[in-house]
């Protein structure tokens, strides 16, 4: 069993990397991109019986820094 | 003064920090990230700059979960002194010993240069060797030094006089120009600039030496 965790900077936290990607897209001629936010995806292979709550605890304690990041857990 | 300097895989300012402590008269022990206890009688723990665990996941995130960091947290909870420089500051925020987080520099570039810092408070063992309002030159060398905290935390830091240093000319986008902050009991300092790199005439500057000298004075007296 697997879980996929999406970690993103919270709204209101400046994402300079996303901004740099937006500028690059504009410079390449891709018009109409008004914002880019860059995050990360973490895939976990889990033993049977692991719950979404377990993964949420992993996010709270390590995978995300909740001062600046939000996370979403997807059980696969 | 008995100092311990933590070494993580990827630390690269550990020796510089140890040299600065010992030049001020400290007896210094290096401690490895897998150690689960600090040497007996340690007054101050130094968490050095570098790239602990390759900055994997987030700067300082893996280091914050290492066995030695549990001992450092217990030391801080007992009222022990801790100095975290650069990656050490990132580790202190990741452990929750200090509030906030360090984001990627607003300009996206790694910055390595001497910057001017304004001493915002002399009310701590770290900053008592300076006068409030002093401007000192200390090198920065970081990619993720952009201090972030929510508005309530920033207000609390201001009200409790816990901003130790502010950048005169903010190089990285840090909130409120913050370069270094103190814990509520004023015994833990986290800062992005490197005082240990300005502690000897051969460094090209000695403005950081007063911090180590003053710490040694406080801890010898105690």
TrEMBL record, chain A:
GO function term, MF aspect, one: ATP binding
Pfam families hit by this protein: PurS
Protein localization: Cytoplasm
Alphabetical list of InterPro entries matching this protein: PurS (IPR003850), PurS-like_sf (IPR036604)
The EC number(s) this enzyme carries: 6.3.5.3
GO BP, one annotated term: 'de novo' IMP biosynthetic process
GO cellular component: cytoplasm
Keyword list, A-Z: ATP-binding, Cytoplasm, Ligase, Nucleotide-binding, Purine biosynthesis
Annotated catalysed reactions: N(2)-formyl-N(1)-(5-phospho-beta-D-ribosyl)glycinamide + L-glutamine + ATP + H2O = 2-formamido-N(1)-(5-O-phospho-beta-D-ribosyl)acetamidine + L-glutamate + ADP + phosphate + H(+)
Pathway given in the UniProt record: Purine metabolism; IMP biosynthesis via de novo pathway; 5-amino-1-(5-phospho-D-ribosyl)imidazole from N(2)-formyl-N(1)-(5-phospho-D-ribosyl)glycinamide: step 1/2
Described function: Part of the phosphoribosylformylglycinamidine synthase complex involved in the purines biosynthetic pathway. Catalyzes the ATP-dependent conversion of formylglycinamide ribonucleotide (FGAR) and glutamine to yield formylglycinamidine ribonucleotide (FGAM) and glutamate. The FGAM synthase complex is composed of three subunits. PurQ produces an ammonia molecule by converting glutamine to glutamate. PurL transfers the ammonia molecule to FGAR to form FGAM in an ATP-dependent manner.
Subunit and interaction comment: Part of the FGAM synthase complex composed of 1 PurL, 1 PurQ and 2 PurS subunits.
Family named by the database record: Belongs to the PurS family.
Name of this chain's protein: Phosphoribosylformylglycinamidine synthase subunit PurS
Record gene name: purS
TrEMBL record, chain B:
Keyword Thylakoid: no
A Gene Ontology cellular-component term: cytoplasm
UniProt-listed GO biological process terms: 'de novo' IMP biosynthetic process
GO molecular function: ATP binding; glutaminase activity; phosphoribosylformylglycinamidine synthase activity
EC number, as in UniProt: 6.3.5.3, 3.5.1.2
UniProt keyword Ligase, yes or no: yes
Catalytic residues of the enzyme: 86 (nucleophile), 194, 196
Pathway connected to this protein: Purine metabolism; IMP biosynthesis via de novo pathway; 5-amino-1-(5-phospho-D-ribosyl)imidazole from N(2)-formyl-N(1)-(5-phospho-D-ribosyl)glycinamide: step 1/2
Catalysed reactions listed for this entry: N(2)-formyl-N(1)-(5-phospho-beta-D-ribosyl)glycinamide + L-glutamine + ATP + H2O = 2-formamido-N(1)-(5-O-phospho-beta-D-ribosyl)acetamidine + L-glutamate + ADP + phosphate + H(+); L-glutamine + H2O = L-glutamate + NH4(+)
Keywords, comma-separated and alphabetical: ATP-binding, Cytoplasm, Glutamine amidotransferase, Hydrolase, Ligase, Nucleotide-binding, Purine biosynthesis
Gene3D superfamilies membership: 3.40.50.880
NCBIfam families reported for this sequence: FGAM_synth_I, PRK03619.1
Subunit details: Part of the FGAM synthase complex composed of 1 PurL, 1 PurQ and 2 PurS subunits.
Annotated HAMAP family: PurQ
Protein name per its UniProtKB record: Phosphoribosylformylglycinamidine synthase subunit PurQ
Gene that encodes the chain: purQ
């Amino acid at each position: 069993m697997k879980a996929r965790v999406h970690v993103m900077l919270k709204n209101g936290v400046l994402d300079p990397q996303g901004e740099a990607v937006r500028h690059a897209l504009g410079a390449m001629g891709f018009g109409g991109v008004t914002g880019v936010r860059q995050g990360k995806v973490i895939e976990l292979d889990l033993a049977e019986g692991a719950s979404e709550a377990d993964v949420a605890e992993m996010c709270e304690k390590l995978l995300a820094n909740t001062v600046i990041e939000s996370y979403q857990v997807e059980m696969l | 003064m008995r100092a311990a300097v933590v070494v993580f895989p990827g630390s690269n300012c550990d020796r510089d920090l140890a040299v600065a402590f010992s030049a001020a008269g400290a007896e210094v022990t290096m401690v490895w990230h897998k150690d689960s206890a600090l040497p007996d009688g340690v007054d101050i723990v130094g968490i050095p700059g570098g790239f602990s665990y390759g900055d994997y996941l987030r700067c300082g995130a893996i280091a914050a979960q290492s066995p030695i960091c549990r001992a450092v947290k217990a030391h801080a909870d007992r009222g022990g002194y801790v100095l975290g420089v650069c990656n050490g500051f990132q580790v202190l925020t990741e452990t929750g010993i200090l509030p906030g987080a360090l984001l990627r520099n607003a300009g996206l570039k790694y910055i390595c240069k001497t910057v001017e810092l304004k001493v915002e408070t002399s009310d701590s063992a770290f900053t008592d060797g300076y006068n409030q309002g002093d401007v000192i030159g200390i090198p920065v060398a970081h990619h993720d030094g952009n201090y972030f905290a929510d508005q309530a935390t920033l207000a609390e830091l201001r009200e409790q006089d816990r901003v130790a240093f502010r950048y005169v000319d903010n190089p990285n986008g840090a909130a409120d120009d913050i370069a270094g902050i103190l814990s509520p009991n004023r015994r833990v300092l986290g800062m992005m600039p490197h005082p240990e790199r300005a502690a000897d005439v051969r460094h090209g500057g000695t403005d950081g030496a007063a911090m180590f000298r003053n710490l040694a004075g406080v801890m010898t007296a105690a």
